[in-house]
Amino acid sequence: MRKRTRRQLRTWGAVLGAGAAVWLGAHWASVWPVLVAVFAAVLVGGAGWGLWRAHRAAVGQDRQWRAQEEAKARELSMAEVDVLSWQEFETYVAALCRRDGCTRVVVSGRSGDLGADVIGYLADGRKLVIQCKKYAPHRSVSSHDMQKFVGTARPEHGADVALFVTTGQGFTKDALGLAVRQDVVALHRDLLGAWVKGAHLDTLIPLSGSGGGTKRRSPVRPDH
Prior knowledge:
This protein is α/β, with parallel strands linked by helices. Helices cover 57% and strands 13% of the residues. The protein is built from six helices and seven strands, in the order H-H-E-E-E-E-H-E-E-H-E-H-H. The chain has helices spanning 2-82, 86-99, 143-153, 173-181, 189-197, 201-204, and strands at residues 103-107, 118-121, 127-133, 140-141, 161-166, 170-171, 184-187. A five-stranded mixed β-sheet has the order 1-2-3-5-7, with helices on both faces. Strands 4-6 form a two-stranded parallel ribbon.
């Protein structure tokens, strides 16, 4: 039964093929332009698809390369920061604040400062309190360090924006979680590198914590 069905299918296939050939021969003058157009469309479509895939791959590679170069540039700029002493680092952070329009910026530079290494005012009048940790690039800020800063930044110093900046690679999970809950800006090495390279402090504040101290604002802008 199956053999008979296959034979019948082959027979019908041959008949249809022969009929199609006869029809094409009789109408070739009108058919061949259509076939050429279809073939050309397939070629163009295939070429376009290939170009689109190549473009996407090139864009992806370019983005990856740019990200790698950006990271290298940040590390190059951070190389100069890494050689600073902790006192020089605090002074340098204060200089970055002044560069970005902060006023009345002072550096504590002493022990017993209750976590306020740098104090100043943002351009919109908010009080900025900064804790600076000059750590090795591979170190992370601990939850204990963050707890101490949280305990003094607002209760002791009245910070509207509490910023914890470190030269270390980042913050432990617990430290970062505490920063988010307490609305502390946690600036790790990569963000500090962007700041050093010229990124404005106002653009960095929203990148960490829950908004960078926006829960409180100074009602009156201080005298410059």
